[in-house]
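Researcher: I've been going back and forth with a colleague about how Bifunctional adenosylcobalamin biosynthesis protein might be arranged in three dimensions. Neither of us has a model we trust, so I'd like an independent prediction. The organism is Allorhizobium terrae, in case that matters for your notes. Sequence below.
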Amino acid sequence: MSHHNVKSTFVLGGARSGKSRFAENLAQNSGLERHYIATGRAWDDEMRARIAQHKHDRGPLWTTHEEPLALADTLKRIDAPSRVVLVDCLTLWLTNLMMEETCDIKAESAALAALLPQLSASVILVSNEVGLGIVPENKMAREFRDHAGRLHQMIAAEVADVYFVAAGLPLKMKG
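Model: Here is an independent structure prediction for Bifunctional adenosylcobalamin biosynthesis protein. You can compare it with whatever you and your colleague have in mind.
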C-alpha cells in the first residue's frame, strides 16, 4: 500500500472562523471522492434543520456519514485511497464522548490519532481551538478544554499539515 500522496490535515479555529469552509475547499481541491463524517447529534428540530441545511449546501458530490461516537471505526470502514474524508468536527465528537459515562476519552483520543497514519484515504479533521480563553469556571468545561488540548496535540503530531483559521484566513502551522 503506497502512502506517498496521502495527506492528512488538521484544521483548527475558533467558532465561526471559516475553518469548515476552508476544510471543505481543501477536500474539493483534492480531486478525490468526497466523504463527510458529521459528528453532530440532532438533539432538537433546530439542530436537525441545521444538519439538513449543511448537507444540502455541500451538494450531491459528498457522501455524508453521521457518526457521533465511533469515529475511528467509521474512518476504517470507509477508508479508500480514492477518497478524501472530512471529519467535522472533533469538538462535537469529544462532547459526545463526555456524555457517555463509560467512555475512556484519553484512550479514544489516542486510538484516533494512532489510526491516522494507517489510513489510505486523505483525511481532513476540523476542531475548535478552545484553549485561548480564560480558564472556564465549571469543572466540565475545564475537563473538556483539557481533553481537547490533549487530543489536538496528538492529532497535530500525526498529520502532515496543520492550519489555524481566524477571520477566514488560514495560517499554516505545520507542513
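Researcher: What would you highlight for our discussion?
Model: I'd start with this: The longest strand covers residues 122-128. After that, consider the following. DSSP finds six helices and seven strands in the chain.
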